[in-house]
Predict the 3D structure of the following.
Amino acid sequence: MGDEPDRLEVVIEVDCGARRSGAPPEAAGDLALAARKRGLVPVGVFTYPGHGGADQDARRRAAQDQEAALTAAVRGLEGVGVTVEVVSAGSTPTLEFSTSSVITEIRPGEYVFGDLNNARLGSCTEDQIALFVAGTVVSDWVPGQVILDVGNKALSKEGSPEIGYGGIAGTRAVLSKVNEYHGFLPLPDGGFRPRVGDVVPVVPNHVCPVVLGFEELIVTDSTGTSLERWPVDARGFLN
């Protein structure tokens, strides 16, 4: 909304290659005219480069696609007399390469905390990841394995047996399997040998569904001392 309550401002979504939603960039001008006929005020354009999640080359190419789509859309809007105030880009994997001067804002989300998926892509390093799920070891009777009280309801089920369903910070250990309330953690060769009752920091593959699954986040310092609690305002809102 703008400053005037009867003036509903909108931005037009265009597709830049993710093939998820959004119009072709060259249709932005026509869509702006259609919006005006309905009493709306077009003020810009946005896109989401969701096809940049394979590797660094894919991230770079998606950012280039994003720039090309936004540039074409801005040209179309200006061609029908729209003063373009908003040119909005995303995402975390393409953030590093989203340097075009046409962009007025970027909407990365995962970058706030980071996760293992982004670490694998090179969007962040593992020591930059800032969100963990506290998992308690509840069983160690199987040789070479412990069970944590953290399953797919806490971590989601994003992952695979090959990359795991989450990792333990500072170690090479990854969850090989998750049930609803339990995580199976094979112990790698070396010194990492948690015991029943130990609490370990589990790093999620994908941070977004993890945040949405909890009522609040506990903020700690580097020693694990609790400093404050942050409520998750989006809890319960699927969109």
Remarks:
- The longest strand covers residues 133-139.
- The mean pLDDT is 94.
- The chain has two domains: 9-108, 126-231.
- The chain has five helices and twelve strands.
